[in-house]
Each structure stands twice: as structure tokens, then as C-alpha cells.
Design goal:
Blueprint (H helix, E strand, L loop, with lengths): L1 H7 L7 H6 L3 H14 L4 H13 L3 H12 L6 H13 L3 H15 L3 H13 L3 H9 L6 H16 L3 H14 L4 H14 L2 H14 L4 H13 L3 H14 L4 H13 L3 H14 L4 H9 L9 H24 L25 H22 L12 E7 L6 H13 L5 E7 L6 H9 L2 E4 L4 H10 L4 E4 L6 H7 L6 E5 L13 E5 L14 E5 L48
Parallel strand pairs: 1-2, 1-4, 2-3, 4-5, 5-6, 6-7
Helix pairs in contact: 3-4, 4-5, 4-6, 5-6, 6-7, 6-8, 7-8, 8-9, 8-10, 9-10, 10-11, 10-12, 11-12, 12-13, 12-14, 13-14, 14-15, 15-16, 16-17, 17-18, 18-19, 19-20
Length: about 575
């Protein structure tokens, strides 16, 4: 802020009032004191002192100074401005308005007066008037920045996003240290999907004002979206330290902890959320899922986790059916029993109970909004849809989907892809060129449900139910006559809305059907066309005179190319 001042008031460094309006408060106070010691009647020094007193909550003392200055002649706009600000600081809007009117008559085009008029209009809810005042401002300073910042925040609350962004940008340009403007513009950009810019703005807000916990919360949501679990945890721990009764923040802390495999910590965060709000449906849902250990340290811990999962699931189902608030279906998919797939056991019965609850809750929503029945059978090409969050370079895409997209006979099948994920790359573009239609970037899960329903599909395939919140919500609905799951997540879904599970002969033993609630369809071989890799061979070059002796080395186990984590989304 001092840099802004130095670049604009060259030649006025001896004016304490100009220093104050430029935001150089320390310098203004020092200079005012020096000048008042020499001359107690120094007008500009007195006004600067009065402005500083208002900022410190000493409005009565500030008014005494201003009234003294107005006594000989009531034509000092800055004295009226002091009085207006003093009255405004204690909520005397009428008195503040009268003083501002006097200031405006005398110096209506001064930035400090115009900014105060805008702030006064905002305090009375006159948003349009505030905007008109700021349009006439020619200059800067902290109060101008504050007026733009507060108007931007008000417009953001009113969902006037474009106008809000303009004023928040102007606030930051006027005062680069305005943490609140950074935080609000960051929140706006986050909601728009401009995540990189949002992260920069929110990081700056937290840097400028660490106690601005709203910025920390929004930044944590971006960290979760990027699967930066430890970064999200740090921010959310700071947030809940300041606001321990915020149930939603405790819930998202649980999400971040699950991302790192700390299910014990996640359980504690869920319990804290429920102590703050025992109607928090997603926290109850997450508490059930966090019973499953990510990496069990013993067989007994693994078995105890399975037993606790079943017990808590039954408690959740009873609560949902008897005490849950309206909108409890939003909890479906917010967390999923991801880790159960890595416990060697038959999970059919417990996942059937889980699936029954998912479909029951989603079915209530479907009946309320009147989701149409699936399209009846008809002649011609079979209309097939595939719903996946991973229609891009991803293990699910390469292992299953790409081969299906490439080799399904276009003369027999009309294929549509519903890409519910966020990432796009060359594989996404290739997929779009191979199918009748690729749907992407439709917004929330309700928009996806409508798009899939409107497509009137004969067959709907979900390759990886259990890895994405949108996918499991859609899969819990009946949107096509035949609905199938794939082995992108290799465990039964338990959903009564899923008719068949596409697995592979190479994977399944003779008694495999008893592990599935769906009809098991074991496709030949691996059940997919996995494209072979073709690494380029290169003859090694040897240093001159080096021996080409073959050296034995120890064998190493291949490590997985990627680690799958539960997908969590903000909002």
C-alpha cells in the first residue's frame, strides 16, 4: 500500500491527511503529531488525527475535533467526513447520511467522499447507488478499495457474479493487500471452475490474513479436489480450531483424512461433526465408511473393521428411515466402501444392504422429481451408454473402456459416453471421435441423471461403480432397461438396480456367482481388449574399452503405476 502512495502523491509527503487517505497510517500519525506539537491549530494534522481516532473506535473524540474545525466556517468537507464516519461506526446511519450530504455538497468528487457515499449506500442496501458512486471515483486509497470490496461481496451474495468480479478485481488493484477481496474473488473463481486462479487468490488471502478462515476452507476444498490430502488437512485443522462447531468443516476434514488412509482420524472427525450437528447426513454416512481400515495391521483389525462396518450400516439405515432430514439422498456416494474391495472375503450380503439403502434413498428422490421410466424395447441399433468419470488417460480407461469403444460394432450399437469426470486429454478427444455422442461438463449429478434418462438407452454400463460419487448416485437409479457394472472396481455393487456384472473368465472361480448380487457375466479371457505397449528398442552404447560383462542383479517386485483413492468433491 505504501508503494501505491509513493507513486501517486509525490510532493505531498508533508501532508498527513494525504498520507492517511493513501493508507500510510503510521507515517500519517507520526507527521500529524510532529505538526500538532508545532501548531495545535494545524488543520490537516487535526483531520488526520481525527480519522485515526475513528479507526480506533474513538468516534466521540473524533467528532469533537471535527466540530472544533467546523466552528469558524462549516465548509470543510473532510471534517464532515470525519463526523459521518464516526456516526456510521456506531450505527447512526441517519446522522452519518446528513454529514455525508454536507461533505458531498462541498467536495463530492473527492475519492474519499465518494467512497464513503458508496459505503453508506451499501449499509442501507442501496446497491445500485453504491455502484453509481464508485463509477465516479477517480483515484484510490483504502476506503475506495473497501467500498469496491464490500460492493463486490454484496453482489456475490446476490449471485451477480460478473459485476461482483469487476468490483473485487478493482478492490485488489486499488489495495493489493485486501485479504477479503482476494478471498471473495477466489471463492467466485472456484465456483466458476477457474481452479488455478482461485487457488492463487485464496493462497494470497490466507497469506495476508491467516485468521480469515473462510478463505482457508475454500482453499482446502481445492486441495481435496487435487487430492492434496495433507494440504487440505492443514487448512481444515486451522479452520476447525477456530470454529470447532462447524459440522461441515469436520466432515471435510474426515474426507481429507480418508484420502490419506487415516480412517481412525476420519472417524474422530465424523464424530465431532455429529456432536455439532446430529442431523449431518453426510457425516453419518462417512462414519460408516470409515469403519473399514485402509491398511489393516492385523487380521483381527481387518475382521473387526468389517463387523463394525455392518453394524454402523444398519444403524445408518434405521436413522435414514426414521429420523433423517429431507434431502438425505445427497449423502449417497459422498463416501463409499472403497477399501472393502481389498479385503479377501465374500462381501455380497453386507453390500446388498448397502446397495438397498442407496437405491431406496435415490428412489425417493426419483419419485419426487418424477424421473421417467426407461425407454421400452424397440428395433434398430441397440442404444448403449457408458457412464464413467475416467474417459481420459486412466487405468480404467486403458484396461476396459478404450477397447470397448474401439471394438463395439457401430453397425449394431449406437454408443454414447457420459464423462462425469473433470479431466480431458487426447484420449477424451479420441473417444469423442469414435462414438455417437460424448457428454461432458454438465454440472451436478442431477443434470447427469436427466441427460442419461433423456438418451433413452437400451443398455447402460458403469465400468467402475465405487470410485466416483456421481456414478454411484446414477447407478442407484433405474435409467435404462438393462444396467451393467464392470470390474473397474472389482467387487459387487450390491445395487438392486444393477442387473449384471461384466467380469472375465480369467478372473473368476467356479463358485464366483455367490460373491455377486448381480448376474455374473464372465466375458472370454480378460473381457476387454487391452492395447499392447510397444516400447522402442535401443542398442546401448558402450564406453571405449569397457567390458560388456553381464552382471547379475536382484529381482524387484513391480510396483503399481498408481494408487486409487476414494474420490471426494467439494460442495
Amino acid at each position: 500500500m505504501l508503494g501505491w502512495f509513493l507513486s501517486r502523491i509525490t510532493g505531498k509527503a508533508s501532508d498527513p491527511l494525504a498520507l492517511y487517505h493513501a493508507g500510510a497510517f503510521v507515517e500519517a500519525e507520526r507527521l500529524a503529531e510532529e505538526r500538532l506539537q508545532k501548531n495545535a491549530a494545524d488543520r490537516k494534522a487535526s483531520l488526520a488525527q481525527a480519522m485515526l481516532l475513528v479507526d480506533r473506535g474513538r468516534g466521540k473524540d473524533a467528532i469533537e475535533i471535527a466540530e472544533r474545525l467546523l466552528a469558524p466556517a462549516r465548509k470543510d468537507a473532510q471534517a464532515w467526513l470525519v463526523i459521518a464516519r464516526a456516526h456510521s461506526s456506531v450505527g447512526r446511519r441517519k446522522a452519518a447520511g446528513e454529514a455525508l450530504a454536507s461533505a458531498a455538497k462541498l467536495a463530492g468528487n473527492e475519492p474519499s467522499v465518494r467512497a464513503e457515499l458508496a459505503l453508506h449506500a451499501l449499509s442501507e442496501g442501496r446497491v445500485d447507488d453504491a455502484a453509481k458512486h464508485l463509477e465516479r471515483v477517480r483515484g484510490g486509497g483504502p476506503r475506495v478499495a473497501k467500498a469496491h470490496s464490500e460492493l463486490g461481496a454484496d453482489l456475490l451474495h446476490r449471485q451477480q457474479r460478473e459485476a461482483a468480479a469487476r468490483h473485487l478485481q478493482q478492490a485488489i488493484a486499488t489495495d493489493p493487500n485486501d485479504a477479503v477481496a482476494h478471498a471473495n474473488l477466489g471463492a467466485l473463481r472456484k465456483d466458476e471452475g477457474s481452479f488455478d486462479e482461485a487457488a492463487r487468490l485464496l493462497e494470497r488471502a490466507v497469506e495476508l490474513q491467516p485468521a480469515l478462515v473462510e478463505a482457508a476452507f475454500n482453499l482446502a476444498m481445492l486441495r481435496i479436489q487435487d487430492r492434496n490430502w495433507s494440504g487440505a488437512q492443514r487448512l481444515l485443522r486451522d479452520y476447525v480450531a477456530a470454529r470447532p462447531r462447524d459440522a461441515d468443516a469436520q466432515y471435510w476434514l474426515a474426507n481429507a483424512l480418508v484420502g490419506d488412509g487415516d480412517v481412525a482420524g476420519a472417524r474422530a472427525a465424523c464424530q465431532a461433526a455429529l456432536r455439532a450437528d446430529n442431523q449431518h447426513a453426510r457425516a453419518r454416512w462417512a462414519l460408516v465408511m470409515s469403519q473399514l481400515p485402509a491398511v489393516p495391521m492385523s487380521v483381527s483389525e481387518q475382521q473387526a473393521g468389517l463387523a463394525d462396518f455392518g453394524t454402523e450400516l444398519d444403524k445408518l439405515a434405521l436413522w435414514c428411515r426414521t429420523k433423517a432430514p429431507e434431502g438425505v439422498h445427497e449423502a449417497v456416494g459422498s463416501q463409499q466402501p472403497f477399501f472393502i474391495a481389498y479385503i479377501e472375503d465374500n462381501h455380497r450380503e453386507v453390500l446388498k444392504r448397502y446397495g438397498a439403502l442407496c437405491t431406496e434413498l435415490m428412489g425417493q428422490w426419483a419419485r419426487r422429481v418424477k424421473v421417467p421410466e426407461p425407454a421400452p424395447a424397440r428395433g434398430g441399433k441397440l442404444k448403449v451408454g457408458i457412464v464413467s468419470a475416467h474417459i481420459h488417460s486412466h487405468s480404467v480407461w486403458h484396461a476396459l473402456l478404450r477397447g470397448w469403444v474401439e471394438h463395439l460394432d457401430a453397425d449394431r450399437f449406437e454408443l454414447q459416453l457420459f464423462h462425469t469426470g473433470m479431466l480431458e486429454d487426447a484420449e477424451t478427444k479420441w473417444a469423442a471421435s469414435r462414438v455417437a455422442h460424448l457428454h461432458h461438463d454438465l454440472g451436478g449429478w442431477t443434470s447427469w441423471a436427466k441427460a442419461v434418462s433423456d438418451a433413452q438407452l437400451d443398455v447402460l454400463i458403469y465400468p467402475e461403480i465405487g470410485m466416483d460419487s456421481t456414478t454411484v448416485r446414477l447407478a442407484s437409479l433405474r435409467l435404462a432397461r438393462v444396467q451393467l457394472a464392470g470390474w473397474g472396481h472389482p467387487v459387487t455393487t450390491g445395487l438392486p438396480t444393477i442387473d449384471g456384472f461384466l467380469s472375465a473368465e480369467a478372473f473368476e472361480p467356479a463358485d464366483a456367482q455367490q460373491h455377486y448380487s448381480e448376474k455374473l457375466v464372465a466375458l472370454p479371457g480378460l473381457g476387454c481388449a487391452y492395447p499392447p505397449t510397444a516400447p522402442k528398442r535401443k542398442r546401448p552404447t558402450w564406453p571405449s574399452g569397457a567390458s560388456r560383462r553381464t552382471t547379475a542383479c536382484c529381482s524387484r517386485r513391480a510396483s503399481p503405476s498408481s494408487t486409487r483413492r476414494p474420490t471426494t468433491r467439494s460442495g
